[in-house]
Design goal:
4-stranded antiparallel beta sheet, single chain, 2 domains, alpha+beta, 8 helices, 4 strands
Length: 173
């Protein structure tokens, strides 16, 4: 399981998008996704050209994003702290004389350093840089008068099924 899935607070953290030149093509894609991929219609969003609600349709789970932020920082921050304390214990037990002569400072320094690195990693993971290409493609498509179909998938298996149905024109994250 990727780290993103383990700390995500979103229900639908996987997405697949495809652009179409007409509403008829987009509606056909929606029908194919519900009939062939078995995707519930509630997990499919259609963005029309110049749609004023595009941002909400791309990222509908604002509370889930907040949960992802909190979960990522807590999980990775605590994980970093624990890793730092374990590393400090090893260095105090069998490490160089400097770490053995001042164990308290070793625990404080490594616990703080790796805890902070975990928090930084939590911030980097929760930024979701993998969504940027999808957002930019969708924005460009709607500005160009195209229709975009977004499938919000629960798992990577469901994402693969959607990609197989929607064909080569799709983009996934």
């Amino acid at each position: 399981m990727p780290i993103q899935d383990a700390i995500s607070g979103e229900n639908y953290s996987h997405k697949v998008t495809a652009e179409f030149t007409s509403q008829i093509e987009a509606d056909n894609a929606v029908r194919m996704l519900t009939n062939q991929a078995g995707l519930p219609s509630g997990q499919i969003t259609v963005i029309q050209p110049h749609d004023p609600n595009m941002a909400h349709k791309i990222e509908p789970e604002t509370k889930g994003i907040g949960r992802s932020l909190a979960r990522a920082h807590v999980t990775l921050g605590v994980g970093g702290l624990v890793a730092g304390l374990v590393l400090a214990a090893i260095l105090v037990a069998v490490g160089p004389e400097a770490t053995q002569s001042s164990p308290l400072m070793t625990f404080i320094a490594l616990g703080f350093l790796l805890g902070m690195l975990g928090l930084l990693l939590g911030g980097a993971v929760s930024l979701r840089p993998d969504h940027d290409p999808m957002i930019e493609h969708t924005r460009a498509a709607t500005d160009a008068g195209q229709w975009t179909v977004i499938a919000h998938c629960i798992s990577s298996e469901q994402q693969d099924a959607v990609k197989n149905v929607i064909d080569y024109s799709s983009q996934s994250l």
